[in-house]
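2024-03-11 09:14:02 DEBUG pipeline.ingest accepted 1 chain
2024-03-11 09:14:02 DEBUG pipeline.ingest length=78
2024-03-11 09:14:03 DEBUG pipeline.predict start
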Amino acid sequence: MAVVQPIVIYPPAGDGGRRVRVNDRFVGMAYGLLDIVEFLRLGGLEDVDEGWLRQSGLVEWRGGGPDEWSTARHADGP
């Protein structure tokens, strides 16, 4: 059985934004780590910061990690 991560950050869209899902709900489009931090704080995770996002096992980064906000790398290859 596959384990579902409670927080999923999707690959960058054409404008560099990344969709953010918490549990089964999309909470917004992030254009940087601070956007994700704010979404999570609004959802009740008050102790979240950029360091937590980078290290937490609760976050699944798809299409690149926390420093990937452009589709250029994916379009041109590694």
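2024-03-11 09:14:41 DEBUG pipeline.report The mean pLDDT is 87.
2024-03-11 09:14:41 DEBUG pipeline.predict end
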